[in-house]
Structures are given as structure tokens and as C-alpha cells.
Hints:
Strand content: under 5%
Structural class: mainly alpha
Shape: elongated
Number of helices: 5
Radius of gyration: 16 Å
Amino acid sequence: MPSLFYAKLYLLTVPVFFVIDLLWLGVIAKNFYREQLAHLLSPTVHWPAAFSFYLIYIAGILYFAVAPALAEDSLARALVNGALFGFFTYLTYELTNMATLPNWPLKVVIVDTLWGVTLCASVAMASFLIGRWLAG
């Protein structure tokens, strides 16, 4: 697939990721993180860092999950690769926090890792379907 195809796919995947993740963070699990991590949370979000993370992370989902799935024309591959990408990246983050930050709860490790699997699998599948649509 040409670079322009992936640029369009990326731009169409960004809002999908934001809608799903912000629904989780801002509505569904908002109180969960505040309750579990109140002793560590900053009162303000460093938005440039947050947006940079999101933009880089979405590129990772496209590279490691969506592109191989499109090459195989396999929604199942998007699901599996997306889930694995979410598992490895979120669990790496969680275990690093548990190892280096005071009182990082095991409950957060489990819930957030499961969320990472769900989020990345969902975004990868949606992006795969958008990619199929773009390819015509």
C-alpha cells in the first residue's frame, strides 16, 4: 500500500482511538483511577505529552497490528495483533510503574492491562475496516 493510503488511514484512525479511550478515561473509569492513584496523580494533565503519546501509540497500532492484517486481508489478524500490542505495551507500563512508583496497585495493573487489550484490539479492528474501505 502506498504512503498516502497509510497517511489517510492514520488520520481516520486517530478519532476512533480518541473516542474509545476518552470514553473510558473520562466516563467509565474516571473514578477508578482517581480512587486507586490519588496519591500519585497530578492535578493537571500535561497535554503536549498526552497528545504526543497518543499520536505515537496509534502509529504503533497501525504498524504492528493493522498493516499486517491488511496484507493478509484478515480481520482476525487485526484483532489478535491489536490485542497482543495492547497487552505487551500496557503491561510493560504497568509493571514498570509497580516496580518504580510507591504503592502502585495490583488492581490498576490488572484493570489497565485488560483495558489496553480491549482498546488496541478494538481500534485495530476498526482501523482494518477503515483500511478496507479506503482500498475500495
